[in-house]
């Protein structure tokens, strides 16, 4: 086999490893971005702990197909960049926000989240979900309110019993 075919096989294996290691993989059409906008987008992805790359559609398609995922075949046309993210929402948030910031010069094509195909509408819904850290903070706040209320109620019951026995 030629060195070129071997190199492509190696790239496909690397893409498969990144897909498997990511909780979400976002496919993005980046046509029309200026260099400054692209740099800003890459920086935002980096801050979101997301690996952002431009990859050949044929290599992406081959990687997905080798993972028995064929839902992306129609999305892998034209200019495509990929965001490999360790969580379900961060890359979606950055991509959807950047679509708005650039007046739709870029657009989200689809995503692969926790082993499932997600269409463009689904990616926008993912972007609207608060991050895991925010959800944990909200839950902790809600629980502390419940605990505080329970403590006040128990204290009131204890005081009432004290008054009744006195």
Please tell me about this protein's structure:
Helix 1 crosses helix 3 (57-66) and helix 4 (90-101) crosses helix 5 (120-128). The mean pLDDT is 88. The protein folds into two domains: 3-129, Ribosomal protein L10, N-terminal RNA-binding domain (Alpha-Beta Plaits), CATH 3.30.70; 130-166. 58% of the residues lie in helices and 16% in strands. By secondary structure, it is of the alpha+beta class.
Keywords:
2 domains, 58% helix, 166 residues, alpha+beta, 5 strands, Alpha-Beta Plaits, 5-stranded antiparallel beta sheet
List the helices and strands and how they pair.
Blueprint: H1 3-21, E1 24-29, H2 35-47, E2 51-54, H3 57-66, E3 81-85, H4 90-101, E4 107-113, E5 116-119, H5 120-128, H6 132-165
Antiparallel strand pairs: 1-3, 1-4, 2-3, 4-5
| Mean pLDDT across residues | 88
Question: In what range is the share of β-strand residues?
Answer: 15-25%
Write out the strand line-up for the largest beta sheet, numbering strands in chain order. 2-3-1-4-5
* Low-pLDDT residue spans: none
In the CATH hierarchy, the architecture of the largest domain is 2-Layer Sandwich
Helical percentage: 55-70%
User: Could you tell me how far the N terminus lies from the C terminus, measured between alpha carbons in angstroms?
Assistant: 94 Å
- Full CATH superfamily name of the largest domain: Ribosomal protein L10, N-terminal RNA-binding domain
* Secondary-structure element order, N to C: HEHEHEHEEHH
Q: What fold name stands as the CATH topology of the largest domain?
A: Alpha-Beta Plaits
- Number of structural domains: 2
Care to count the β-strands? 5
User: Rg, please?
Assistant: 24 Å
What is the molecular shape? elongated
Provide the structure class. Answer: alpha+beta
The main sheet comes to: 5 strands, antiparallel
Question: In CATH, what is the class of the largest domain?
Answer: Alpha Beta
Count of helical regions = 6
